[in-house]
Amino acid sequence: MMVFPALRLLSTNHVEDGYYDFIIVGAGSTGCVLARRLTEIHHWDVLLVEAGGEQPQWDLVPAYLTFASDPAGGIDWNYKTVPSPNYCGGVSCPYPRGKCLGGSSSTNYMIYARGSKSDYDELEKLGNKGWGYNDVLKYFIKSERNGDPELASTKYHGSDGPLPIENYRYQDEIGSLTAAGTIQVAAFLSSENPTHNIEPDLEFGFASTFSNGLIPASYYDGITILPIVLRPKSRGYVKINSTDPLKPPMIKPNFLDNKADVILLLKGMNISLQILNTPTMKTAGIVADTTEIPGCEQHNWGTDEYWHCVIRITANTLYHPVSTCKMGPQSDPSTVVDSKLRVHNTSNLRIIDASIMPFTVRGHTNACVIMIGEKGADMIKATWLIP
Ligand SMILES: Cc1cc2nc3c(=O)[nH]c(=O)nc-3n(C[C@H](O)[C@H](O)[C@H](O)COP(=O)(O)OP(=O)(O)OC[C@H]3O[C@@H](n4cnc5c(N)ncnc54)[C@H](O)[C@@H]3O)c2cc1C
């Protein structure tokens, strides 16, 4: 969450009449960045409207993270997906989205991973001038206050921005591959050639909280290895579901619709087993928990058939949806905004958030969307600031 002085912040329940130079809808990761940067121009009046309330104090405790996306936490939209036999065991899966000051950045896992250089170069090649790696790097740097002096002194990082980036403070010397409430260790690698430094297609997160809900698995000396497909090929959609604007949208993510994603996850499961067989893991006494996942008992544990079944029952999202308002040239009918983030065929309306990304980057989305907020703010300033 970011701090922004001289800013009027009103709940959607109480918007005062008035005239504003800019109205920002949603005080999430990008909305907050925009509000902060636009209010640097002191004669601009900025209204930031947020549907949720303040971020509660308990949400600052990392171990309570799972609670943040739970209906009981009161700071999530509590969306559910349309059920499909392909994922979540055939029932609706939760589709968390933060609903408070800070948006999903207030409920997320705090992992900072920008993606690959090639992600941004690809974005530019799709017709989005000014979005190549060399153009966006300066906005990553501008946003960042990196607490590691060694990293901060390199040409890739910044130390003066508003977003603190640091190593996780609470290192457990004994449950050390995991951390309560977040992922402490992550590996990015190519399934084709895991030991070579080439573009990754899989991420492996070492988590503690997934298997036991609110009680961290680390409490029981457990680790959950999560293979993650970085650039899924399956495509879903979000649709307005009712004439009542307050009703939730229909969310059909179509996870694992494309067979290539299932095959890649299967490779991920097998690589996870290889990780378990490394001398480091063996020395630490870590062994696989071979308790069968309910619903997959008919298969032999560890076979491809077994993992196929486990994937269909337990695979879920890592909460990085993008592309509902894709950026691209107007000649492409699937796009909504141009490379200056202006909605096609409208004036004075921009979309500046995760939805403009045509694909997920090979990382996590929050760093990327904060960069989008920084870049979007500069675009607005360039349009409206009269020298
Ligand atoms: C549980 C979870 C874990 C995640 N973990 C990570 C992670 O570890 N690392 C990472 O990089 N990314 C992570 N992400 C993803 C990342 O947080 C999001 O991609 C990012 O926050 C999206 O930013 P945004 O500005 O597009 O939207 P949001 O931050 O979601 O902000 C949207 C805001 O708009 C408000 N809003 C919506 N509709 C209205 C309306 N009609 N009127 C007023 N306000 C409205 C919402 O309440 C919300 O505050 C995670 C996301 C979730 C949900």
From TrEMBL:
Q: Does the keyword Nucleotide-binding apply?
A: no
- Keywords for this entry? FAD, Flavoprotein
Would the keyword Flavoprotein turn up in this protein's UniProt record? yes
- Glucose-methanol-choline oxidoreductase C-terminal domain residues are 232-373
Kindly give the InterPro entries that the UniProt entry links to this protein: FAD/NAD-bd_sf, GMC_OxRdtase, GMC_OxRdtase_N, GMC_OxRtase_C
Q: Which cofactor does it need?
A: FAD
* Residues annotated as domain Glucose-methanol-choline oxidoreductase N-terminal: 20-182
PANTHER family (alphabetical): CHOLINE DEHYDROGENASE, MITOCHONDRIAL (PTHR11552:SF147), GLUCOSE-METHANOL-CHOLINE GMC OXIDOREDUCTASE (PTHR11552)
Family, per entry: Belongs to the GMC oxidoreductase family.
- What is the protein name for this chain? Uncharacterized protein
User: What is the scientific name of the source organism?
Assistant: Dryococelus australis
